[in-house]
Amino acid sequence: MGQALTALKMDLAWLGKKVPPRGKPVREKLRGMEGVIDATMDALHRILAELRPGVLDDLGLPRRSAGSPRSSSGVRGSTARSR
Predict the structure, then answer these.
(1) Quick check: is 67 in a domain?
(2) The whole model's pTM is what?
(3) Within a domain: residue 28?
(4) In a structure prediction context, what are the per-residue pLDDT tens digits for the chain, which is 83 residues long?
(5) Does residue 79 sit in helix, strand or coil?
């Protein structure tokens, strides 16, 4: 779901670059849509954090530390994964 939201944000950024100079209402709408996506991503992160202790900790899986190779890359909505 995070990847889909990130793709939507990228598409909104692309659309924002295509809006003509007189398109202030369209730009404002795009900024509002980006805000909804950001809020949805924040809610998703909260939900996942709340689910983790009850589900994964009970299974004995260790928590991922901030410096681990599979931690967030610092870019909202994307993660860096090593193989």
Answers:
(1) no
(2) 0.61
(3) yes
(4) 999 999 999 999 999 999 999 999 999 999 999 999 999 999 999 988 877 666 667 777 776 655 444 444 444 444 444 43
(5) strand
